Amino acid sequence: MDKGGQPIFIIDPRKEQTKGKDALSMNIAAAKAVANIVKSTLGPRGMDKMLVNPLGDITITNDGATILHDMSIEHPTAKMIVEVAQSLESSAGDGTTSAVVFTGALLEKAEGLIEKGVHPTVLVKGYRLAAEKAVEVFENLAVPAKDRELLIKTARTSITGKASEKYSNLIAEICVDAVLAIHEEGKADLKNIILTKDIGGLVDDTEFVEGIVIDKVALDKNFPLRIVNPNIALVDTPMETAKTANKAKLQISTVSDIEKFVKQEDAALFEMADYIIRAGANAVFCSKGMDDKVAAYLQSRGIYATRRVKNDDMQHLADATGGRPVRNIKELTEKELGHAGLLEQDRDDDQGKTYLRDCKGAKSVSIVLRGGTEHVVDNLERAIDDALRVAKCVVEDGKIVAGGGASEMEVALSLRSYATSVGGREQMAIIAFAEALEEIPRTIARNAGLDAINSILTLRAKHAEDKNAGLNILTGGAEDMLEKGVVDPLRVKVNSIKAGSEAAAMVLRVDSMLRAQRADMQEVKPEHMASTYEGMSAPALNMRR
């Protein structure tokens, strides 16, 4: 109020403002709501969610990142929690549900401490100390993983609980072989693994191809379906009569002139094909158009020919076969040719796929996903995506930790001991951090139909003698997860701790929210209203150039 008693508006009164504990409580409630959405999907016995988009398309999954991505979430704090899942999906490829559940648990524990009088900044400091200690303990728990068998166990663990779990052994082996095939100098670029869908087959027929699969077949329906040890030419230029840049007319006076012109045109086309024949190629992939006469000329000489191959496929063909795409057909020699062990067509009339198999030293490889329906193949694709990403993490980092809630329980116990060495109220935050970590094995037990309290007590007792003890959902007992082959990449656990604690700290530091009201229509100046127009002419505007 000013001296005259008139109100002074610093903030637009049309804006919605929430302050203090109300803002904090609202934000924590939003975060907890997001965590509760995906909590029931965690673990081997987790449930699925059915997502229906406005068009009526259905997605059935228990993948946390997919669920949160496809939901229409508007609350700003809830969006921050979704970003935790998205960041973990991009950096580690798995553990998204665990990270969201952990973040929700951190904020739930913080809410209880705030009600007891602990200031949010104290909690933020305590959570930061706890996160640093947790990362240190996780790294100490990690064991090296270099051999293929441990990679397969890690990939198989990521598939557990998903709809495609029945085929976990097959999927895990395929994904590990694919990652090992394309990794170089300790790095694996998953862009070099091409996933191809083949709806209508059996999941058991899903396969890894050490080479490339493209949605093209030979132009000649009667061409042989197999070529052993093909020499492959990659042509990045049109193999047809070039059109003139300007309009031109050809004066023909006799029938013989027509025949002569056609022969000259054919000779130019066949000359292109002769360059391919002289180079020793018996398979041609052209990214541009190819005249039917050229295709027939090549295929009559036992050369596979196809046209209009996508640019991405051309690059993958080059990476897989070692060939070099040429833009000048006259430059094609034996040196530019790619090689494979087998070229094989799977065609149905004019449609189908071409497989280039057994490409030695291939930098691009393929996985062919097969299933009876589109929903089956989509679920399989999500499972394979997770398995590929965790295999990539282990190949690059070379470290794993025990799964099944074992590592979270060990870190929680270590944090409880660490809290006693920290003075002040920060130790309360550290203990809350430990309790939030225990929410992971507690949720796994609850989703498996076990008594959560008994399961946690059993794990705590077992960890006195075995730091890798996790929950066996079949028996309800605690067993060594490393021996059982239930393992996770270290990167997943570390990134989950970092992302979750940072998101919780951001939420706890907010003490005021300002929300602008949504405008239904932009304000229009009176002189631009339709009622001021005379006839159909708008008012003139003075514009300078």
TrEMBL record:
Pfam families: Cpn60_TCP1 (PF00118). Keywords: ATP-binding, Chaperone, Nucleotide-binding, Stress response. The keyword Chaperone applies. Gene3D superfamilies: GroEL, GroEL-like equatorial domain, TCP-1-like chaperonin intermediate domain. Transmembrane segments: none annotated. GO terms for molecular function: ATP binding; ATP hydrolysis activity; ATP-dependent protein folding chaperone; unfolded protein binding. Belongs to the TCP-1 chaperonin family. Signal peptide: none annotated. It comes from Methanosarcina horonobensis HB-1 = JCM 15518. InterPro entries: Chaperone_TCP-1, Chaperonin_TCP-1_CS, Cpn60/GroEL/TCP-1, GroEL-like_apical_dom_sf, GROEL-like_equatorial_sf, TCP-1-like_intermed_sf, TCP-1_chaperonin, thermosome_alpha. This is Heat shock protein 60 family chaperone GroEL.
